[in-house]
Amino acid sequence: MDNTTIIIVAAALVAVAAIAAAGWMYLQKKKTKRLRSRFGPEYDRLADVEGGRARVEKTLHEREKRVERFNLVPLSSEDRDRFAGAWQQEQAGFVDDPRATVANADSLVTEVMKVRGYPMGDFEQRAADISVDHSLVVKNYRIAHDIALRNSGDETSTEELRMALLHYRMLFEHLLTGYAAEPENQKVTAVGALGRQ
Hints:
The protein is built from nine helices and no strands. By secondary structure, the protein is mainly α. The chain has two domains: about 5-70; about 75-195, no CATH class.
């Protein structure tokens, strides 16, 4: 081989490597964009907890794969009506017993998840599973659950309990309909409904 041939081959190898690297970077960027879009605030929360884009995306991809194996079903109209009635009953009892209402709201959300087909692991696993299809409200679930845990020790104010109920309601409505509506619209609905109690 002469020097010209060696230079041409080397240049071709460098060009192929550059194209492969650019392709890999494009695919990584596309994957990041998809996961950020799907998981929203949960992506950012995990970045704070786990650090590093690669670790976050691996965790989220594993969540997607896990939830794909579930047999998630929409609620029947009878179940939807039954759960909606139970929620209204709990919400109506808030003024008389806010602590019991929040504890019951937590149980009601768990029951809806179970009927929809979510496995009932510990709270962190349930929140991770919910984040795949309900990423806009998983933060609400975490906040409500935290307040509910403190509620068991009588460390919460009535205002915190009201906020917990609002947060549970946002997730409850997502689970009830099977559709992820905008949390702002649900917050107005929930605040209005609780304000009339």
